[in-house]
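#structure-requests
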Amino acid sequence: MFLLAFIPIPLTAYFHMESTFSGGYYRDIDKDAHVPAYFYWNFNQAHRSGVEISIHSGVNNDVVFETWRFFLYHATLALPYKTFRADLGRQFFSEGFEAGMLDGAQARYDWSDDGGLWCAGGGLHSLEQTDIDFKTQLYGLALHQKILTALWKVGYFFNVRDKKENLHLIHGAVMKEWQNFIFKPSFLVKGQVNPEESALTQITSEVRLHPSESTVFTFDFLSQRRNHLLPDDGEFIYGLFSSSAQKTFHTSLTWLPSSHFQAELGGWRSYYDSRRGEESVNRAMLSTSWQWGLYDLNLSLGRMHSYGGRVWHGGGYLKKALKEWADIQIEGSVAYIDKINSINTWAYHVRGGMSFKIAPKLILSALAEVERNHRFEFDTRGIVYVSHYFY
């Protein structure tokens, strides 16, 4: 079922290549059979001069549309020189409140340890888009500098949109922490303004307190317009329901009694306007992670309640090192879905497998997974990961 081929390439520095092939069988709610297949190829190379090449691509027969498609997720050439670095090509973009894929360039120059300049330009599109086009473009720059022990940042975006008015946006942020005060507080405030409308379009803030050495209390607020700089199809599903910015309040309490154990309890409440009126979503999550000897254990339990219904879910992950050259891992999750359209169902997912260190620079992972939910009556897949390193 699996065919993986590797051609060694002599290089002068670091080389990493990883291939993933997965295929399986599932039956949908109409009991029709499907055979999905996915192949992903990741390539990273770094020369002694600091020049880096990175390519992440994939081919699959899409589960929904069942047509073969090629995806170029990432393809960049990094050119560093002292404190300057330029990334050219297709790359993930995240600055201010925006996130997407950028076909263009990003550059960064640091004039000191406390300050620097960032700039970027190119075609901006959603993560799902495969074609290269410049119908939506983004050009921007940002300056950051540490002043009076606080980190300040200010930037500007010029957004060019096909057949629509262009946008001019100014964004800024300030971050400060007090290590010598009680509870060691820290805060972050970030906002984005449309100067033509004199409107604050997006804002986020976060406050952190340390009641003790082993506990962290966090409260943050986010008011965002979901990817409003991208083409209309970038947020198709979200646009079907929401007609306003999304406002989210989040708080969490984290306990870290040692470097091997962590527990976190978090809660979220979101608001937005829809065609039905004002809607809200509540979420709560409890998660733990524990490392003990050769074991690595993670557990989670959560609940979500929205206008569409309720979901209760839980899961766990266990990894154990058997030898220096092998380890075993298993993970599983279960959820109960109670929707307002009278759909009540259980969803399950189980994955397990082993990883083998065949050679000092060659790692093979073989996994199998089974899934069942309201969409798939039965879904089973096999997955193989291969990582090859050269130094």
